[in-house]
Amino acid sequence: MPAPLALPAEPITLFEPDRIALTDQKENSDVFDDDRRAERHVAAARPEPQPISTPPALVELFLVFTKLGITSIGGGVNGMMHREFVTHRRWFTDEDFLSGLALSQSLPGVNVANLALWLGYRCRGISGALAALSAVLLPPAIVIILIGDVILRWSGNPVVGALLAGLAVAATGMNLWVGYLATRYACTDIAAIVLTVAAFTGCTVFHLSTLVVVAVLAPIGIGIGFLKARR
Predict the structure, then answer these.
(1) Are 95 and 132 part of one and the same domain?
(2) Are residues 149 and 193 in the same domain?
(3) Direct distance between the N- and C-terminal alpha carbons of the chain, in angstroms, rounded to an integer
(4) CA dist 94 to 73, 79, 98, 167, 179, Å?
(5) How far apart are CA 193 and CA 74, in angstroms?
(6) Is 180 a member of any domain?
(7) Does 36 map to a domain?
(8) What is the pLDDT of residue 33?
(9) Measuring CA to CA, how many Å separate 78 from each of 58, 88, 171, 172?
């Protein structure tokens, strides 16, 4: 009579590939958890962003806006403000400046005055807003009163006309640069691109009023931003 077969001390695993796959998945999960822990550690150790510079004094703020108000010939004041406050003095980031520019252009009133109010308020509060507004309005008005008659008499001169036309072209280039920065900052997804194209089409193709475009598209944009913030 043959001897009985000896059974192995441990049961035989019939599905060895499945066990290997489960082991690999566990190892990958452990590696992923380690990576996430490392990312959280780096994020916790990363310092908070600091202000670019200390707030300027009221006198300095007034003098800078006075210079911009007097020298912004040709309508390129937005571009000159960006170069002065963001590039040169580094009082604002691109995001801060463009947010203020969008707000100033969406509110009623003169865009330059609105932007000066916003920038001055961000620098020194209410006193800074009043200093910036008075600096961009009063000195240019005084200059126009003093030399306006001279400019009027010389405006028919071909040389003066060519000079003013050249200044206007330079100002247009600066405004286009600021517009490009604003478009790059705003158009970060499909919804923003659609709203931008819709606003551009409504103003240039259908010649709609700016109030109508803002009244229709602004609530949509605010709603999209609110939904993004809740995610």
Answers:
(1) yes
(2) no
(3) 76
(4) 23, 12, 6, 25, 12
(5) 30
(6) yes
(7) no
(8) 52
(9) 21, 14, 9, 10
Angle CA 200–206–211, to nearest 5: 70
Residues 107, 167 share a domain: yes
**Does one domain contain both 154 and 79?**
yes
Number of Cβ atoms within 10 Å of the Cβ of 78: 23
What's the token pair of residue 145? 């009163």
Q: Is residue 6 part of a domain?
A: no
- The whole domain housing 71 covers 58-186
Query: Cβ of 199: how many Cβ atoms within 10 Å?
Result: 18
Burial 92-105 (b: 16+ CB within 10 A, else e): beeebbbbbbeebe
Residues 195/221, Cβ–Cβ less than 8 Å: yes
Hey, what are 222's tokens?
């605010």
Domain identity same for 213 and 99: no
Per residue in 192-221, pLDDT tens?
899 999 999 999 999 998 889 989 998 998
Q: Within a domain: residue 177?
A: yes
What are the tens digits of pLDDT across the range 164-188?
788 778 878 888 888 888 888 888 8
- Total tally of structural domains belonging to the chain: 2
99 and 85 Cβ atoms separated by less than 8 Å = no
